Amino acid sequence: xxxxxxxxxxxxxxxxxxxxxxxxxxxxxxxxxxxxxxxxxxxxxxxxxxxxxxxxxxxxxxxxxxxxxxxxxxxxxxxxxxxxxxxxxxxxxxxxxxxxxxxxxxxxxxxxxxxxxxxxxxxxxxxxxxxxxxxxxxxxxxxxxxxxxxxxxxxxxxxxxxxxxxxxxxxxxxxxxxxxxxxxxxxxxxxxxxxxxxxxxxxxxxxxxxxxxxxxxxxxxxxxxxxxxxxxxxxxxxxxxxxxxxxxxxxxxxxxxxxxxxxxxxxxxxxxxxxxxxxxxxxxxxxxxxxxxxxxxxxxxxxxxxxxxxxxxxxxxxxxxxxxxxxxxxxxxxxxxxxxxxxxxxxxxxxxxxxxxxx
Length: 359
Prior knowledge:
Elements: H1 13-18, H2 24-36, H3 40-54, H4 60-90, H5 95-111, H6 118-131, H7 138-150, H8 154-163, H9 178-190, H10 194-207, H11 215-227, H12 231-244, E1 250-254, E2 260-265, H13 271-284, E3 298-301, H14 315-327, E4 332-333, E5 340-343, H15 345-355
Parallel strand pairs: 2-3
Antiparallel strand pairs: 1-2, 3-5, 4-5
Helix pairs in contact: 2-3, 2-4, 3-4, 4-5, 4-6, 4-7, 6-7, 7-8, 7-9, 8-9, 9-10, 9-11, 10-11, 11-12, 12-13, 13-14
């Protein structure tokens, strides 16, 4: 912490009697800065020392900033664990890969505190906040739920979400915002609780009001349904989201010939959601109302994988394999853009003829 922060016991007698050397706003700013810098332990330590060492009481912003720091730390911890697992699996085939994996794992064990349970710390701070009769706002709740989501603690996430509407310890309820509900649905997805995730979605959709499902809601829900083998329910949910405008995959893009073309852009889609989107288009070719004109190539933007962990394409092999295995449709990487898959119109026409429904 900066040297300018003077502990209470280091002040002169006149200073202690007149006013605090450090204001609560200054300490809150430092707590937030510690969280942004990846130092959640310092953020929590400073929060704990505010009354005894600096002579000021923590307020709702103090707790919120420390809880956000814990949430960010839990997400970073889980990310490092995933990278560590991938390095062990993919980096063990060569001597150089093994050495890189060992060095990285050794570094992360010391610098990222992989053994600490930051989601538990966030929960503990939320309880303390209520005990001190401070009212958590939706951002504070969503950060705690998100920390539980990152750790796979879906029951805890649901419990916190439900407590928002009936918590008597803070005097009045705190209506959950979209971030709270989305984090809870994502927690259910990670925990394999697809039924609970679907119930949250249905409740949010039917309740009305300002909190409405969005793209992130649908993405998490479809991952949960697809992972649980609920393919029909997942496809119906996607089609409903498409009708309601929650997802809009069709975009106008410049094609290889310089002309504007209607393409399916799946850049932000998860693999299960992308499969459902492409599957719905191919299946629609056998129906009176097609989602795509088979007299034109079907181009799917899947990305080059620059934004994914490891920098490898995720959607490209998934969509290519699905088209071949489920429909017998061949696709190729676009010559002009390696982040696009192209299904030639001849291939689409051949597919429709094989099925015998049209042409």
